[in-house]
Design brief:
The complex is a heterodimer of chains A (195) and B (261). By secondary structure, chain A is mainly α. Chain A has two domains: 120 residues, Rna Polymerase Sigma Factor, Chain: A (Orthogonal Bundle); 61 residues, Winged helix-like DNA-binding domain superfamily/Winged helix DNA-binding domain (Arc Repressor Mutant, subunit A, Orthogonal Bundle), CATH 1.10.10. Chain A has ten helices and no strands. Chain B folds into three domains: 51 residues, no CATH class; 62 residues; 102 residues, Immunoglobulin-like (Sandwich), CATH 2.60.40. Chain B is built from seven helices and eight strands, in the order αααααααββββββββ. In chain B, strand 4 and strand 5 form a beta hairpin. In chain B, 33% of the residues are buried. Classes of the chains: A mainly alpha (195), B alpha+beta (261). At the A-B interface, helix 3, helix 4, helix 5, helix 7 and helix 8 of A face helix 2, helix 4, helix 5 and helix 7 of B.
Chain lengths: 195, 261
């Protein structure tokens, strides 16, 4: 029930594209709406990566600061705000993991952040609890190893070689798990948005 | 590689697992707005983004909303707020661009000149936007309550023959655990042609870690930001060396200055 006002606002309120335009006009209320729309999702994602509430708070603030600073260059007609924000959040969180573990900083900086057209307009899918439940079910259907490699890649930013080392498995085996897992997810979920 | 060969790597790329040469090839296709690879990678991203959205739901503390909103409200109220200045500059640039374009229609002889000016304004606008982003990152670090700061005074550079000794570089380093490292310096002459300044974060008991390249202004001032979380307690010092323009992975010369924490 708590999500009902949010879903109604998404369904009948302004779109992410409108929100981007207001952020670009430096409207502080737009920042409040951005947080109300994506703050919980961003916090959940970052907390899953860093597993520390205090650090997650810092990184959420940093994520929104980065979006606020860079939104002028974001083309809302070409890319979706939510996926972009989540990509920034994931990058910040994994960057933190890597720096705290002594691994190379920015090693996982995703090049796609330079391509707004790659971020589909997925606000309804990202905030739809039924859709999220389907994703969780699809992940649970994977074998333990397949789920592990997907989570190590997404939530810890490990390369396939790093995963092989972490799991004490041959690199070829890990690559097979990754490919099989991605195919299973694609078959289960398809794509969230029809192009 | 053609699009058909790259198709199998879209999801690996979206997940950050694609390796070269496929990753570079996909980037090249994206750079040229490839009509096959752009929608292909976008579709792959949709799949991968859903993994993040499926992270176990957690309720953020109420104070976090205030912290985030302070980004927007704080900037508006801050003495350091330069946004209106840049907004005015951008508005001026826009007006100038319109004026130039009208003139270009009226007199073809003026078109080339107006177009050049427009491009220059666009270049300046991009440059100003970058500078604004850098300043925002710097001010974000300065505004943090738990920022640690340390001053430094550099080694006195050797005097050139017949000239008085130049004053040593001096300034301060600010370290914010969440925001990064901010360096503010003066008396730092621009690095010679083909060289650049490189900052290093030196962990306790560890080797120097590259922390970004920068150049000082003609008046000897410099401001450099390394954004991102930093382990303040685990940092022994921050130093700056002169390196080749491409930067280095390890320092090759003695530091111009160093600040011990």
């Amino acid at each position: 029930m708590l999500l009902l006002p949010l879903l109604l606002a998404i369904e009948f309120g302004e779109s992410d594209a409108d929100l981007v335009r207001r952020l670009q006009r430096r409207d502080p209320r737009a920042m409040a709406e951005l947080y109300d729309r994506y703050g919980r999702l961003t916090y959940s994602l970052i907390l899953r990566v860093v597993r520390d509430g205090g650090i997650a708070e810092d990184l959420v603030q940093e994520t929104f600061l980065r979006v606020w600073n860079r939104v002028q260059g974001f083309d809302a007609e070409r890319g979706g705000l939510g996926p972009w924000l989540l990509a920034v959040a994931r990058n910040r969180a994994i960057d933190y993991l890597r720096s705290s573990a002594g691994r190379m900083r920015n090693a996982v900086e995703l090049p796609e952040t330079e391509y707004p057209a790659l971020f589909s307009d997925m606000e309804k899918e990202l905030l739809n609890s039924d859709r999220v439940r389907r994703v969780r079910v699809a992940l649970e259907k994977l074998s333990e190893n397949q789920r592990a490699v997907i989570e190590l890649a997404y939530f810890e930013g490990l390369s396939q070689a790093e995963m092989a080392e972490r799991m004490s498995q041959p690199l070829g085996t890990v690559k097979t798990w990754v490919r099989t897992a991605l195919k299973s997810l694609r078959d289960e979920l398809g794509t969230a948005v029809t192009a | 590689m053609n699009c058909g060969e790259l198709r199998d790597y879209y999801e690996l790329y979206a997940l950050g697992l694609a390796e070269d040469p496929e990753a570079s090839e996909i980037r090249a296709h994206l750079d040229r707005n490839c009509p096959t690879c752009v929608p292909g990678v976008r579709s792959a991203r949709e799949l991968i983004t859903q993994i993040g959205a499926a992270a176990p739901a957690a309720e953020p503390p109420a104070r976090l909303r205030k912290r985030v909103l302070a980004i927007a409200g704080g900037q508006r109220a801050s003495l350091w707020n330069w946004s209106p200045v840049w907004a005015a500059v951008a508005a001026g640039a826009l007006i100038a661009a319109v004026v130039f374009n009208v003139r270009a229609h009226r007199a073809s002889a003026e078109f080339a000149r107006a177009n050049t000016a427009l491009r220059q304004l666009q270049v300046e606008a991009v440059s100003q936007a970058r500078e604004l982003a850098r300043l925002n990152e710097a001010f974000a670090i300065l505004n943090q309550p738990n920022v640690k700061q340390v001053g430094f005074g550099g080694l006195i550079p050797p005097a050139r023959k017949g000239e008085p000794a130049a004053p040593p570089p001096r300034g301060r380093i600010f370290l914010d655990p969440a925001g990064g490292v901010l360096l503010v310096a003066s008396n730092l002459p621009p690095a010679p042609s083909g060289k650049i300044y490189e900052m290093w974060v030196i962990p306790k008991g560890g080797k120097p870690v590259p922390a970004g390249l920068f150049q000082s202004a003609a008046d000897g001032t410099a401001l450099h930001v390394l954004p991102g979380p930093v382990d303040v307690a685990g940092t022994a010092a921050v130093a700056v060396t002169v390196e080749v323009a491409a930067g280095a992975q390890v320092p090759n010369l003695p530091p111009v200055f160093a600040a011990s924490l």
